[in-house]
């Protein structure tokens, strides 16, 4: 019986650590978890990863709907690709990230040929859309629109 209580206590501590310590850059809305070392941790990491994906999808859908944008045939660029790229191609995206404040959601970049959008949700629920155009090898901001959106809670904040 003691080993059962120990396992439950350990799981609670792992979850508390994973939930309490998770964040990315200026974003307080994501949770992170180091590489799992056993099956229990793998299941926890999977739950966290799925919750992060759901949250980001909910945020992007709110922005898309608020601004009435059709993303058909646009590709979502992975943030790791942007951060790992040493070129100046994505400078406009990096500049937006650098101006974020705690509670803002990490922006998303959608591209289609030489056109693109950056979606950003501020901590108060405001939805920003930056319209981009590729000029040579760099993306340039052509327009910025702001509309009130929904304040969206991360799924793990509700559990």
What does this molecule look like?
By secondary structure, the protein is of the alpha+beta class. The chain has one domain. The chain is 39% helix and 25% strand. The protein contains four helices and five strands. The chain has helices at residues 2-21, 39-66, 79-84, 91-98; strands at 75-77, 105-112, 115-121, 126-135, 138-148. It has a five-stranded antiparallel β-sheet. Helix 1 (2-21) runs parallel beside helix 2 (39-66). 20% of the residues are buried. Residues 140-159 are annotated as: Disordered.
Fraction of helical residues? 25-40%
**Number of β-strand runs:** 5
Task: Determine the mean pLDDT.
Answer: 81
Domain count, please report it.
1
Q: What is the overall number of helices?
A: 4
* Proportion of strand residues: 15-25%
Would you tell me the structural class of the helices and strands? alpha+beta
The radius of gyration is 18 Å
Unreliable spans are: 1-27
The major β-sheet equals: 5 strands, antiparallel
Helix-strand sequence? HHEHHEEEE
Which strand order does the major sheet show? Answer: 1-2-3-4-5
User: What distance separates the N and C termini?
Assistant: 27 Å
- What characteristic shape results from the CA principal axes? globular
Short summary:
With 159 residues, the protein is an alpha+beta fold. It is built from 4 helices and 5 strands, in the order ααβααββββ.
């Amino acid at each position: 019986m003691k080993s059962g209580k120990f396992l439950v206590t350990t799981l609670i501590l792992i979850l508390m650590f994973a939930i309490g310590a998770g964040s990315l850059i200026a974003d307080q809305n994501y949770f992170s978890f180091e590489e799992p070392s056993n099956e229990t941790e793998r299941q926890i990491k999977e739950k966290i990863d799925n919750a992060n994906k759901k949250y980001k999808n909910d945020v992007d859908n709110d922005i898309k709907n608020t601004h009435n944008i059709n993303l058909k045939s646009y590709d979502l660029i992975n943030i790791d690709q942007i951060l790992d790229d040493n070129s100046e191609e994505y400078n406009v995206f990096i500049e937006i990230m650098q101006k974020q404040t705690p509670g803002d959601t990490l922006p998303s970049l959608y591209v289609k040929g030489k056109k693109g959008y950056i979606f950003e949700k501020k901590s108060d629920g405001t939805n920003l859309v930056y319209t981009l155009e590729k000029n040579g090898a760099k993306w340039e901001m052509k327009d910025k629109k702001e509309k009130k959106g929904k304040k969206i809670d991360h799924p793990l904040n509700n559990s």
